Amino acid sequence: MNLTYLRLEILRVIRNRRVLIFSILLPSILEVVLGSEYKNGDVNGASATAYLMVSMGIFGALSTAMGISGSIAVERQVGWNRQLRLTPINPLKYIASKVLLSLFMVVPTLLVVYALGIGALGVRLSGAVWTQIFLGSWLSALPFAALGLVVGYLAKPDSIQQINGLVFFLLALLGGLWLPVESMPSLMRTIAKYTPTYWAVQVARNPLFHDKVNGTAILVLLAWAVGLGVIGLRRFQADTARA
Amino acid sequence: MPQRTPQLQPGPGTPAVHLTGLRKKFEKITAVDGLDLTIQTGEVVALLGPNGAGKSTTIDMMLGLSRPDEGTATVFDLAPHQAIAQGRVGALLQSGGLLPDLTVQELVTLTASLYLKSRPIPQVLDRANATEFAEQRVGRLSGGQQQRVRFAMALVADPDLIVLDEPTTGLDVEARRAFWTAMREETAQGRTVLFATHYLDEADAYADRIVLMREGRIVADGTPAYIKSMVSGRTIRATVTDTDLPVLASLPGVDSVETRAGAVLLHCSDSDGPLRALLAGTDAHDIEVVARGLEDAFIALTTGPVTVEASAT
Fold first, then answer.
1. Which pTM value belongs to this model?
2. A75 forms bridges with which residues in the sheet?
3. From CA B81, how far away is CA B24, in angstroms rounded?
4. Is B254 helix (H, G, I), strand (E, B) or coil?
5. What are the residues whose beta carbons fall under 8 Å from the beta carbon of A56, sequence distance 6 or more?
6. Tens digits of per-residue pLDDT, A100-126?
7. Which band of pLDDT confidence, cut at 50, 70 and 90, is reported for residue B305?
8. Would the ipTM clear 0.90, i.e. be above it?
9. What residues of chain B have any CB closer than 8 angstroms to a CB in chain A?
10. Given CB atoms, is A84 within the 8 Å cutoff of chain B?
11. All domains of chain B in start order, with CATH
12. Cross-chain residue pair A82–B65, CB shorter than 8 Å
């Protein structure tokens, strides 16, 4: 892994902090607004506010990781990928650093959403459950990071906002981040089982119910991550368009 | 057709660049049309031609950025991407390729980190005359300053071959001179350089060899002195019906022959001999003799129609 590259990429994210702030703001607002309705409620024996908080964490992870597609679109626009092709860069390592960068960006989002959970919603959990929730949510963001890459490399720069918005909306809705999947019509319930968001939020919520890690969830998330990662890699290699 | 001179003396060992039968078509336009070119190690070669001559397309194929429809390109006997993977090629492309949100120093450092070996960053920034704005964000620089950043990025890996596509675009006269001074110091160390330009004076001043391109083909290849002799001199324009172009081209003093709008144009280093021959041996009429300025002649040589066949493609 090229640490210089990763360090400078993180620096770029910090300099373009508007994207990051927007990705954090979206789940935070929703969390606080909906949270007031959920106080003292429960979902299958778990605190409703904690349940909401975890869902919003995944929502935030999705919005943050998708944020990378915008920066990739800009890089394509200025001909950066073409410039990279003139260096001995290893495409696999490059894509891996992009995914890693996305995962780094997800950390502050999760921390803000959890801090709001404690401060505004009064969520109280044991240290072990906090740790499991954080790790589960963070690692579940892997397919989202890969998705951001694919959208970034597939979409035209002028239509990326719309495509991002659509993918983002569908995945959040179908994955049950806003509404319980159980309350959806049967077709949507079926489709939901194929989305990475559905399984990511299952993994993230598991600790609230003291459930074991779901093997199916991990397989589905890995399949998404690898599948999208391969597409992202292919697209990167094919992308030599002149600036 | 302008004639082709024999290649310069081939240098020893592996050629830096070897292009054979290179062809590239974009929809209806043939950008590069059967190009053969060998560049020896240590040569400083100018790829000279007007916009649309196929220079950038040739460079793209040489760098492995685009795939030729036909023919092959090798760099140090390797496929272009392999030569690049070994860090043996540094390239400056015409536009783009810069991350606007990093400083110059950061961007050059980042580029260096992608190579196994690289030169010290301050030295490279100095060489590219980019030290004074090293701390500024790339996106806030002028076009000329950005061009110097691209130059620094091309030098940072200490490459054996430097490829520059229109390197002085956007530079003012002083910056242009500074650029070439820096370039000279680089080539003094035995580096091979290929640069594309549409300025004859630039090619003349800085290259050992000029490859003149038009409409995707090489129309002349030789020392700057030879190219200048081709494009300077006088042009005889006449209407001739009873003789063949090769016959006219073989007259002593004639460098090249072309036809335009029914007339024959003889580009001559010496126009007196051919003129006598025309009057004595052919039905030539409506004869004009014109002296050509260097730039005018260059433009005529690289932009006018060559033959019916070439303008039809």
1. 0.80
2. none
3. 18
4. strand
5. A27, A28, A30, A31, A113, A177
6. 999 999 999 999 999 999 999 999 999
7. low
8. no
9. 60, 63-66, 81, 84-87, 89-91, 93, 95-102, 106, 109-111, 113-116, 153, 157
10. yes
11. 15-227 (3.40.50.300), 233-291 (3.30.70)
12. yes
C-alpha triplet B279, B274, B295: angle, nearest 5°: 125
Distance of CA A72 to the CA centre of its chain: 16
| Cα–Cα nearest to B40, from B253, B270, B203, B194 | B194
Q: Does A1 touch chain B (CB under 8 A)?
A: no
* CA–CA min distance A101, chain B (Å): 15
| Per-residue pLDDT tens digits for B15-57 | 999 999 999 999 888 999 999 999 999 999 999 988 889 999 9
Query: Residue B310 pLDDT more than 80?
Result: no
Cβ proximity of A171 and A196 under 8 Å: yes
pLDDT for A1: 62
Give me the residue label for tokens 């609230």.
A208
- Per the CB < 8 Å rule, is A83 touching B102? no
Mean pLDDT of B229-256: 81
Q: Tokens at residue B114, please? A: 């992608």
Name the minimum distance, in Å, from the CA of B156 to any CA of chain A: 11
Which residues does chain A have within 8 Å of residue B91's beta carbon, measured at their own beta carbons? 86
Using the structure block, give the residue that is written with the tokens 């460098």.
B255
DSSP annotation string for chain A: --HHHHHHHHHHHHHTHHHHHHHHHHHHHHHHHHHHHHTT-EETTEEHHHHHHHHHHHHHHHHHHHHHHHHHHHHHHTTHHHHHTTTT--HHHHHHHHHHHHHHHHHHHHHHHHHHHHHTS-----HHHHHHHHHHHHHHTHHHHHHHHHHHHHS-GGGHHHHHHHHHHHHHHHTTSSS-GGGS-HHHHHHHTTSHHHHHHHHHHGGGGTPPPPHHHHHHHHHHHHHHHHHHHHHHHH-----
For A221, residues 6+ apart whose C-beta sits below 8 A from its C-beta are A140, A142, A143, A196, A199, A200, A203
Distance CA B156, CA B122 (A): 10
Give exposure, B17-41, as e/b (b: 16+ Cβ within 10 Å). Answer: bbbeebbbbeeeebbbbebebbbbb
Q: What own/partner pairs with CB < 8 Å and gap ≥ 24 does B258-265 have?
A: B258/B1, B258/B2, B258/B304, B258/B305, B258/B306, B258/B307, B259/B307, B259/B308, B260/B304, B260/B305, B263/B237, B263/B238, B263/B239, B264/B237, B264/B238, B264/B239, B264/B240, B265/B235, B265/B236, B265/B237
